[in-house]
Design brief:
The protein has 259 residues and is α/β, with parallel strands linked by helices. It has 2 domains: 1-76 and 157-175 and 183-222, Rossmann fold (3-Layer(aba) Sandwich), CATH 3.40.50; 79-155, no CATH class. The protein has 9 helices and 12 strands. Strands 6-7-8-3-9-10 form a 6-stranded mixed sheet, sandwiched between helices. Strand 11 and strand 12 form a beta hairpin. Helix 4 (112-124) packs antiparallel against helix 5 (140-153) and helix 5 packs parallel to helix 6.
Length: 259
């Protein structure tokens, strides 16, 4: 679905992404992990066409995204940034409706089909009871569900989520990640997300891309690439790795810093 080849990105004279290549598989959940400043969010901006690239290509279904019209591309991908903001008086329902804007005609008015899709998104994210609430009155987990509802209302093929569990309590983190997993499986939406929590990345991802200093350190199945060596070299941690055979998951318990 997404092919990144020999990508180079700079901020003024500072090299941020250093000649990287990787692919995003269709219908999979791919998570990008790595220390702060390694270039994770910059990659998202490049894929979403909000950050100019200096060299290399990003292709969507074999088409260079620079050759795709903005509105056409907006119908295919939905982006949820790390700290989205909206006017304080906006209701949940109004926020979710924004997801249909790339599909509206010249009148910019919701049609019957658009309203049905909004209703569906509100139901699947379990925020029907909240749809007339103001966004600013809701808890962090409720707001994140509303934002995800807006994103899937767009009916994208690809969903980009930049740290979707940031600032959430542990319970809400679990709920949001379970919702993302459900959307991926039931709707066949390809998901790419950035996470800081290694346990969450290992549990909820089909594939993981480990970034370090603007480069791809490794990419592949979490169980195969998130190991003691990677955690030492990239995250500067000594950890205890627990293999839970009941749910086929890995868990990481930090023991000490390597710095």
């Amino acid at each position: 679905m997404i092919e990144v080849n020999d990508l180079i990105i700079k901020y003024e004279d500072q090299l941020v992404i250093d000649n990287i290549s990787f692919s995003i598989q269709k219908n999979a959940i791919t998570t990008i992990i790595g220390p702060n400043g390694c270039g994770k969010s910059t990659i998202f901006k490049a894929i979403s066409k909000t950050k100019k690239i200096q060299a290399g290509t990003i292709s969507y279904n074999s088409i260079d995204i620079r050759k795709m019209k903005k509105k056409s591309y907006a119908k295919k991908i939905a982006i949820l940034p790390q700290s989205p903001s909206v006017p304080s008086d906006l209701t949940v329902r109004e926020l979710v409706e924004y997801g249909r804007y790339p599909h509206l005609g010249w009148t910019n008015k919701l049609r019957k089909k658009d309203i049905e899709i909004v209703d569906w998104a509100v139901e699947i994210t379990d925020i029907k009871r909240l749809e007339h609430r103001k966004i600013h009155t809701m808890s962090g987990g409720e707001r994140q569900r509303a934002w995800i509802a807006m994103a899937i209302t767009q009916q994208p093929e690809l969903l980009l989520l930049d740290e979707p569990t940031t600032y959430l309590d542990v319970c809400y983190q679990f709920e949001v990640l379970e919702l993302i997993k459900r959307i991926n499986k039931e709707m066949n939406i390809t998901v790419v997300m950035i996470l800081h929590d290694l346990n969450q990345a290992a549990r909820y991802s089909d594939r993981v891309i480990i970034m370090n200093s603007g480069k791809v350190y490794k990419s592949g199945v979490p169980r195969q690439i998130i190991n003691q060596k990677a955690l030492n070299e990239v995250f500067k941690l000594n950890v205890k790795i627990i293999n839970d055979k009941e749910d086929d998951s890995l868990y990481f318990v930090p023991l000490s810093s390597c710095t």
